[in-house]
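Re: the multi-chain job from yesterday

Posting the exact lines I submitted so nobody has to dig through the queue logs.
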Amino acid sequence: MEHVTDYWVAARRHLLPPQARAVESLRKHGPLTRTDLADVTGYSRSTMTSVVNELEEIGIVVETGDGESTGGRRPRVVNFRRDYGYVIGVDMGATSLEVALADFSGAILERVLVPIDVREGPDITLAQVQRLALDQIRQHEVRPEQVLALGIGVPGPVEFASGVLNAPPIMPGWNRHPIRPFFREAFPNALVIVDNDVNVMALGELTAGAGISHDNWFFVKVGTGIGCGIVCGGQIYRGANGSAGDIGHICADKNGPTCHCGNVGCLEAIAAGPPIAARAAEAARAGRSRILAKYLEQGGGRLTAIEVGLAAEEGDKIANEIVRESGRAIGEVLASLVNFYNPSLILIGGGVSNIGLMFLSSIRSGIFSRSLPLATRNLRIDASPMREDAGVVGASALALTHVFADVRG
Amino acid sequence: MEHVTDYWVAARRHLLPPQARAVESLRKHGPLTRTDLADVTGYSRSTMTSVVNELEEIGIVVETGDGESTGGRRPRVVNFRRDYGYVIGVDMGATSLEVALADFSGAILERVLVPIDVREGPDITLAQVQRLALDQIRQHEVRPEQVLALGIGVPGPVEFASGVLNAPPIMPGWNRHPIRPFFREAFPNALVIVDNDVNVMALGELTAGAGISHDNWFFVKVGTGIGCGIVCGGQIYRGANGSAGDIGHICADKNGPTCHCGNVGCLEAIAAGPPIAARAAEAARAGRSRILAKYLEQGGGRLTAIEVGLAAEEGDKIANEIVRESGRAIGEVLASLVNFYNPSLILIGGGVSNIGLMFLSSIRSGIFSRSLPLATRNLRIDASPMREDAGVVGASALALTHVFADVRG
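And the result, structure tokens for all chains:
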């Protein structure tokens, strides 16, 4: 391999399979000896030795110290050069925006959270992203050219290959808007990867949370909508059109309410934040719950799913029933998916997942009541341990994972 | 790489990743030049050149002729050595057994189908498999030592890693019975891979049928039960415990009949062969259909799903309604899985899938009525084109795929 003189050309090069596997393994396992690298990648020691030499020459990896000796000379440990490059992770919600600067090891150097209204459209929102990112790199004395990738999670369906949103219901003005070119001037060397927020949260848990030791599992986000990020063989699975995991419109009840999508009984018309709040407000107005009526009055005639959770914790029977039925409906749909997919882990996250322990236990009971024993034998069902961190960590990981991949910027 | 002198040690060696990728690519694409191999595997030309040399030395591949010239000397094409080894493919059903002998290119040299009763237990059934396989190799002058793998599809849930059945409902006596050791004496060099019949059928279509050009899709078998073989990234996906695709017990109707599993409204209690036949027999006995009554009488008081299909084709209204409702129920469950998995292809196979065009069109209409537009934009839903061949071709492919894999025999 010729010596690469142009640092920034090297940064975006397409790595050969053994090189990519070595980088991926260091990303996953941390510092390793060449022998360890050969073991985890399945390549021969001689191949891994030359791969490490190539990556050292490019500047991606560096020897960081001695490993444990098994008798003779202590083997050298290799790791990323943390300052080989930097990435920006962006977690965009309907009403909030979090931007983080991470180094090449994935360590987050800085993060900032600001309120936004994504309905103001792409021009205003993307300009905010860019301003926050430029502020961060300036503070850390990182040059724009050193930013090798931006990973952006957005609250809508994404056509992953092209990086555009596809008819997002809560993001007017964003349909098929080209996001990648926006950053070309400010970050000339950066690849821009756009993915939907649930995939990004799943990637966060896969990289640094509960998903590290699981190969086949999924992340369920319950918020304004209900979506699912699928991990297959240790990687985010996006399906034929990138729409995999869109479970909010699975039929949960043939006699249920009509959904905004036009179908009847969609899961998210029954168990997401808005129907939980609406059912509670209706009960409060009908005089069936004093506690819910109190929250309704405090909110000036509006209720949130979080308040329904609080009422349930205060012992309100109606609120409890609503939380329990919503959890159960989610669990019954997940039971079908457990039979189909046989995951070893389901993580539940998103704003509405925090409305009390009863919610999670109702989801669990819905799943176990309808899944096959073999499919649930080793199944864990937990709340997302990273909570709010999953998004921004996942977005940084999205950027890092694709720095060397063959995705057009 | 040292020269391998012992042919049969070489046969079962664990290949390094680039070697395995080269073999896999030749299996998928047929004869290729070294340059083509580098292109399809993503490795460098120099790596592929040495990999091909290694594989030639081991005896797995051989130069088979000239490729197309792009100006200079015509490049040499490499392919498998067809006689490097042989495999046995076994498609075991509840009442039939098909055994095939295939060469190393996957070409089937001989196949035989005999009636069996799988309930006679593993000793009798496996002895039949062995006898048929030994007959076949004798006819083709293949020595037992040249058989490198047996791939066996069975009609029950399989723990893939250990190759045993797990509480199979229609195979009494087979629960956790060790299948692999049975063949150790007759085929001392053979790896034995056991998988459930639906995965094997999916693998058949993936190897030589409609699935070749699709990465993410699934195969649905409708017979006595209903099951699904899932393909993820061009490979059979088995889930955390090997139970992935067990869709027969997904709830299709909360007010439906009780299933033999104890739950209410399972898909296979509504839409598999037995409930189709039972509903038709009931209608015949109640005097609601002359045509069904005729079949019931001909069958001595018994009806099959196939006969319900024939009655529907003869214009019987009740039979038509039963076929249509069963297809619709399957389609509605598949709609949920389409939203979750976003496949590009669904193949419908199994005995009951042949009960008329109305069945497939009802499945289609059930899927499209409840799936999201983005998820079905590029979705094809077809009858399995390989039909009865999918099982035995898939079983041979199962054997070939694992010859070099690190699965204990």
